[in-house]
Amino acid sequence: MRSCERCGLCRSRQQTVFGSGSPSAPWLIVGEAPGAEEDLRGEPFVGQAGRLLDAMLAAIGLDRGRDVFITNVLKCRPPGNRNPEPDEVARCAPFLRRQIELLAPSGILVMGRFAAQALLETDASVAGLRNRVHRYAVGNAELPLVVTYHPAYLLRNPADKAKAWADLCLALARLPRQRPPG
Ligand code: URA
Predict the structure, then answer these.
(1) DSSP 9
(2) Which atom of ligand 1 is nearest to the CA of 152?
């Protein structure tokens, strides 16, 4: 992945941002794309949105280094933090799919429209996708998947934090905290 040149983002990135956390964690968290700080540090969610994500996880008793693995749909920063282009998402998607196969989490928490649309292959909004448990097929398994708002969106729209809290409670109730044996 580090040498990927599948799309134009390879020309402006400092580095690829693969993901971080515990590879044996039960939950996988999927965001949108690295921002400026992530691009510099090579780690996902280390900027302002990341601090809110850490607080959201702490609110449900989870620690980012121990209980989750965090990654993004795009592994490279879109310049100026613009939205991902459909073509970039399509070219990067095989990396995320393979990551999910290898990590084999017990459940997936999806943050924001771009990640939800990419994983669920839909153009529905977060409002239309949240508040229920989806299934993500990988190998013989169907992983439970919960969609919520992206932390950067919540920083701009704090009124929706109550809905994000409800989504976290749903995730806590429906995404297993144990990994399947084997
Ligand atoms: N926003 C994301 O979606 N991912 C990051 O890694 C940082 C900010």
Answers:
(1) G
(2) 1
Residue of 28, 40, 45 to mutate, ligand 1, most atoms within 8 A of C-beta: 45
DSSP label of 121: T
Give the per-residue pLDDT at 182: 62
* CA 181 to centroid of ligand 1, rounded, Å: 31
Digit-coded pLDDT (tens) for 68-115: 999 999 999 999 989 999 999 999 999 999 999 999 999 999 999 999
Is residue 31 within 6 Å of ligand 1 at its C-beta? Answer: yes
Torsion angle of C-alpha atoms 156, 148, 119, 81, degrees rounded to 10: 10
CATH class belonging to 8-174 = alpha beta
Q: Parallel, antiparallel, or unpaired for β 68-72 and 27-31?
A: parallel
Q: What pTM was estimated for this model as a whole?
A: 0.96
